[in-house]
Amino acid sequence: MRKRGNSKEWRPEHAAANGILNRRVFLEGALVAAAAGAGSTAAGAEPLPVPSWMKQPGAGFSAYGQPSPFESKVVRSIAPAPNPATQGIGTARTPLQLLNGTITPNGLHFDRSHSGTPNIDPDQHRLLIHGLVKQPLVFTLEALSRYPMQSRITFIECAGNSGALNTAQAQPGNAQAIHGLLSCAEWTGVRLATLLEEAGVEPSAKWVVAEGADAAAMSRSVPLAKCMDDALVCLYQNGERVRPSNGYPIRLLLPGFEGNMNVKWLRRLKLTEGPVMAKDETSKYTVLLPDGKAWQFVFPMEVKSIITHPSPGLALRGAGFYEIAGLAWSGQGRIRQVEVSADGGNSWAPAVLQEPVLSKALTRFRAPWQWSGGPAILQSRATDDTGRVQPTRAQFVAERGLRGQYHYNAISSWRIDEKGEASNAFA
């Protein structure tokens, strides 16, 4: 904000067209509200009224804390698969537009299931490591709990997230419906490398086949190099035991890799010379290309960002100052920069990255915006520390076409109309 002479009047400094302000606005602190004239009202002489909840004692304790009943709409959206062959196939999506920060509460973490959530007795569950090892090993939960543990904050994103944008025409949907197969948590467990080293890896081993204990025995082939790098065998999620829908009592964590590879309900790790071409890495999770060929074994999730506010369902209430906020991430490393646009990508300005900015974790970005009350197209564009830049939709379609449904990471757009309502758009 710039001061006019000796006056206390402040005017915004624009950084891009259609009302995007310089991010230094956020460094001005209290000046923002005065300049924006948004939300607050002048305090009168009358004291605040005493509401009913201050006139009697509140509720007692509960064994497990629950959200306020006024937040009852902050829930996952359930989308069962059409005409499923068995129960439990489908998704539960995170309400990204109703959350803030970067950590997803356990009860709102997205869920993708191929055969429902098994009810596993932890005392009977076992983890087997076998195949090309010198000493096959079987672990109980109690045995695993004796190993040194590490914690890591990282996102998990379904490879099919944002797949609704792989269409010729923009479809209706909010951030949850389109991008809600994405969550971020603090995961705690044992380094997989520690367990593999104890088993003794044979020189011919190059892959590890991870199998879950669900009815589908969901399996994926993982490069041994990843398993020896930053993979965890997780027992805890945000401080408590992993939730059943997210893999209780054990799940595999492969930071930055597509969600399906982070095998839930982990029961078996087999070391092999090559990938086993399991059902879930041949019939699914391949990237179809315009020429009829497909990319297979595309593991890291590409650099990406989305705006969560404003977004569909969160209408703007009149012209004035607003904060554009969203999430950025990359399976290759840290987010280095996020830029925002209010004119469909014709002009861009850098957003503020909220600390901490962690590798392979969600990063919250924020940008000040002075909405004029007229039409706008909001976009965000992320760059990671490897130099990879989120592509435009035109660039993405030119390379991959619209036949696939996995690894969509093109810049997405929200169209804002004169009423302040947002909708999905292709720009």
Search tags:
427 residues; mainly beta; Immunoglobulin-like; Sulfite Oxidase, Chain A, domain 2; 2 domains; 5-stranded antiparallel β-sheet; 6 helices; 26 strands
What CATH calls the topology of the largest domain is Immunoglobulin-like
Major beta-sheet overview? 5 strands, mixed
Report strand order across the widest sheet: 7-6-15-10-11
Which stretches are low in confidence, meaning pLDDT under 50 for 5 or more residues running? Answer: none
Number of strands: 26
Please tell me how large the radius of gyration is. 24 Å
Percent helix, as a range, is under 10%
Number of helices: 6
- Tell me the strand percentage band: 25-35%
Shape: globular
Supply the helix-strand structural class: mainly beta
Domain count: the total is: 2
CATH architectural name of the largest domain: Sandwich
User: How far apart are the termini?
Assistant: 30 Å
Mean pLDDT: 92
What's the CATH C level of the largest domain?
Mainly Beta
